Amino acid sequence: MHADVLVVGTGIAGLSYAVRLAESSPKVKICMISKRDLLESNTKYAQGGIAVVSNFFLDSYEDHVQDTMKASGNTSNKTVVDFVVREGPARVKELMAWGAQFDTKGSKLHLGKEGGHSAKRIVHHKDQSGLQIQNALIAKARSLQNITFFENHSLVDLITDHHIPNTKQGRCYGAYVISKRDEEIVKITAQLTVLSTGGAGQVYAHTTNPTAATGDGLGAAYRAKVHIENLHFVQFHPTALFPKIDGNTFLISEAIRGAGAVLRNFKGEAFMTQYDTRKDLAPRDIVSRAIHSEMKKSNQAHVYLDATHIDIKILEQEFPTILTNCHKAGIDIIKDFIPVLPAAHYICGGIDVDEHGQSNLQGLYAIGECSHTGLHGANRLASNSLLEALVFASRAAKHSAVKLADEILSTSFFERIPNWSGTEDISNQKTVQIHELRASLQRIMSAHVGIVKSGESLQKAEEELHKVYVATKELYQQNKLTPQLTTLRNLVSVAYLMIKQSQKYPQNKGVYFNEDYV
Ligand SMILES: Cc1cc2nc3c(=O)[nH]c(=O)nc-3n(C[C@H](O)[C@H](O)[C@H](O)COP(=O)(O)OP(=O)(O)OC[C@H]3O[C@@H](n4cnc5c(N)ncnc54)[C@H](O)[C@@H]3O)c2cc1C
């Protein structure tokens, strides 16, 4: 199979890239693959919304830039922050023109407030912003003739010089991809390849990310020797619902703290007053560490979030999903405190890219959560990630259009790329083993590479992960590749990079906290 552009991932980043490029260049053939169906993604679960300056009487670009820099402890790249914040409003307008609907108050957008923001600037659709965006983008992308979709197809490896005899161009030429249904590996060659594979929260036992968020783009990029930065900056969301629902950890958006909900410890004390002057709306790293400390003090597995004093109408209108999911877990938030704990939420680092989303491997872009653009530095400001995805997708799409007009590899070159060659079948026993190895890896990362780390805990994590690595490598060398095995391989790579980059980081900044440095 051949396309002009192969886009791996159909969240906000991949879809908005494809829509933009397909509309501006109708002759360009775009192929999109997604690991599950088109909808399943981190984007689908985003509740809060998109941080963007829209009320210029009460807010300004300078304030949004300053809030972003402050949240990151001044480690964000100021040039990147500047252009992302300034290009944001146009990107949100474009998203609305493509069909996304956001809540309004009168003729203006209704704006929410979240931790670390000095003004109300979160454009949202109730507490289902991501679902609204994702559905609108899918409908828009489906309406464009030059985009083709392959759902339930998973990236195995990027095609690079390494796969083609006598080739040394330092380029990416597409990807090998495995289908879920028949587990066949096919090659999809492309002039340009875009990784928009999202997050890697599944490296941890408790995460707000769905099961498909396993850092596959990062794993494939690592094997292709692409630069990956800042994986030690893992943002933990302070308030995930303690009881899992159908095995998944459900996020309680901080918008509900914006509406007045208060964190309480087991004694019922509103403890955030002891940790930060911004109390419950302090940045996530501060709130997560405060909860971690309260959990340790009380020797309990969670703290509480108290929303009982918020007007029922507000809860019903603005937080219907939270109400429903808490109800499923047997909690009536109108009269009960909500048991919450921090969970791995967002990877601030990723594939290192320039201002157009280009990686160091020619022909390979990375956009959205799998990329490292410099916007977040050591800590992401709430609701800046959907914004980043939109801005960089648009920039990458513009850049791709120029590249495609300039640099075209010949059809005969692509014909030289070999098919994937594999080994025998995998037994059921091995499938169980893959599942167990994945669970061990998650336990190792949660126990030793969580909110609070130390030299000793990182060392322990490295040693224990090595055993998982050896077992995974054996499986990989002796068995036919399956989607589960490629995923495990990627989780191991991402966990390894997180540990190694943590060990090299010499100070406490943003979300990174090592108790040896206190
Ligand atoms: C519960 C939750 C709430 C959030 N709330 C907010 C918020 O309010 N505001 C905000 O700004 N951010 C929020 N975030 C973060 C934000 O949602 C994500 O950073 C953003 O949606 C990432 O978009 P993306 O397009 O990069 O990746 P995703 O939306 O995760 O999409 C990734 C895509 O890649 C595909 N994929 C993955 N691996 C493979 C593979 N091997 N082969 C093929 N395809 C693959 C997936 O199938 C999917 O289509 C939230 C995140 C979560 C989990």
Notes on the protein architecture:
The protein has 518 residues and is α/β, with parallel strands linked by helices. It folds into 3 domains: 2-47 and 127-232 and 348-415, FAD/NAD(P)-binding domain; 239-344, Succinate dehydrogenase/fumarate reductase flavoprotein, catalytic domain (Flavocytochrome C3, Chain A, domain 1, Alpha-Beta Complex), CATH 3.90.700.10; 428-517, Up-down Bundle (Methane Monooxygenase Hydroxylase, Chain G, domain 1). It has helices spanning 12-24, 42-45, 61-71, 78-97, 129-142, 216-223, 255-258, 284-298, 312-318, 320-328, 384-406, 411-415, 428-448, 455-478, 483-504, and strands at residues 2-8, 30-33, 50-51, 104-105, 108-109, 111-112, 122-123, 147-150, 153-160, 172-179, 185-195, 228-229, 234-241, 262-264, 303-306, 338-347, 350-352, 364-366, 371-372. Strands 1, 2, 8, 9, 10, 11 and 18 form a 7-stranded mixed β-sheet that branches. Helix 3 (61-71) packs across helix 4 (78-97). The protein starts with a strand and ends in a 14-residue tail after the last helix. Flavin-adenine dinucleotide is lined by residues 8-14, 33-36, 40-43, 45-50, 129-130, 154-155, 196-199, 208-209, 212-213, 216, 251, 346, 368-369, 383-386, 389.
